[in-house]
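Tutorial handout. Part one gives the primary structure; part two gives the three-dimensional structure as tokens.
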Amino acid sequence: TIFREADGKISGTYWGSKITELLVDNNQITGFVFDDGTASVVNKHTIEKTKQKYSSLWTEFVSSFDKKVKIDQNKTQDSVYEKPEIEAMFPGGEGAWQIYVDRKLNKNIGTENKAPGGNYTVWIQFIVNKDGSVRDIKSLTNHGYGMEKEAIKMIQKGPKWVPAMQNGKKVSAYRKQRFDFSVSANTSFRNMFDNYEKTFPTIVKDDLKKITTEKLLGLKKKDISSFRITIIDKKNDQMREYKNKGIALEQYTLNFLKSANAGDIILVDEIKSSHGISTTAFIDKAYKVI
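Part two.
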């Protein structure tokens, strides 16, 4: 049935279902989309019969729909709502979603892939079907460092969602989900000393083969019980350390120092006296290898 509503708009029903959209192929009406998101294809005989019975009203009815969907003659597809009355949601609501994220999301993925320090917000868009399954998952951001891939994996491997609702019925609808990642500014060893590196005294790589404790520590104290040496490998963005016991350099310590390359940073700290106390007299040291 096709009729004119009180406000003058043209509307209609087909076998008791309210029509919300026309299906068009090659400028010919081939079916209808109903308010529950389903569709029905009608044959040419039905169309012609309806047009003859409601000739002028039919034309106005057709022109009242601005959006026309082209479809294959043998296929129909559910409408996907962008703003349904009730959005699709994770089963159990927002609280359950947070628990799922806390348990499953690898929030350190940015750190593991050496992303620059900072906070990152990732947005993922997908469609929740009427049965709660998801499809057409894609990222709306492009931070990289594995963050978008990690978020997409969360949607792919998650449970079925509670579908959106329109006019009291389940419908397919778009959904956008936010994921937050944080990377500490100090996690990148490569950039850790950028503001201070120019002030560090230099040490020639070959000199590390015969360096002494006094030269390394810059101290003449004889009651040193231990100290720590850290090498910052800027090229590979790695850090390694070793604690030397006693005032003399152990053989392993010498080999450890020899492993440093030009461009690396050598730090000496945790310098302790024989009493096990670190004092301000034992100042930490830093060198740039050349």
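Part three, for discussion. Residues 64-77 have pLDDT under 50 and may be disordered. The chain has seven helices and 16 strands.
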